Amino acid sequence: MKSPHQVIQAPLISEKGTLLTESTNQVLFKVRPDANKIEVKHAVEALFKVKVEQVRIARYLGKMRRIGRSMGRRSAWKKAYVTLKEGDKIDFFGGA
């Protein structure tokens, strides 16, 4: 079993994520590529002391990148859409 800090790598702060937070009480996280929905749910509940209703996960393949003549690939990653229970909230900016 992975620790919650290993499963969740970072919150994703973007325009789309902010709109989802305001409209549907969802929060976006960048998670490990080998994490599943159950691990993400337990990690969010343990780290932020909130109740999670639903978790949806999207996989993103790494892009091919070129530096000079050599080709490389960025690493693949996962994005988790976490729906929180009504009334729960995660504030990444400290309520300013």
Short characterization:
The chain is α+β, with helices and mostly antiparallel strands and 96 residues long.
Notable features of this structure?
alpha+beta, 96 residues, globular, 3 helices, four-stranded antiparallel beta sheet, 36% strand, two-stranded antiparallel sheet
Categorize the overall geometry.
globular
Distance between the termini: 35 Å
Spatially, the strands of the biggest sheet line up as 1-2-6-3
Give start-end ranges of low-pLDDT stretches. Answer: none
DSSP strand tally: 6
SSE order and pairing:
Elements: H1 4-7, E1 8-11, H2 15-24, E2 26-31, H3 37-48, E3 52-60, E4 64-67, E5 70-73, E6 77-84
Antiparallel strand pairs: 1-2, 2-6, 3-6, 4-5
Structure description:
The protein is an alpha+beta fold. It has helices spanning 4-7, 15-24, 37-48; strands at residues 8-11, 26-31, 52-60, 64-67, 70-73, 77-84. A 4-stranded antiparallel β-sheet has the order 1-2-6-3. It starts with a helix and ends in a 12-residue tail after the last strand. The relative contact order is 0.24. The chain has 3 helices and 6 strands.
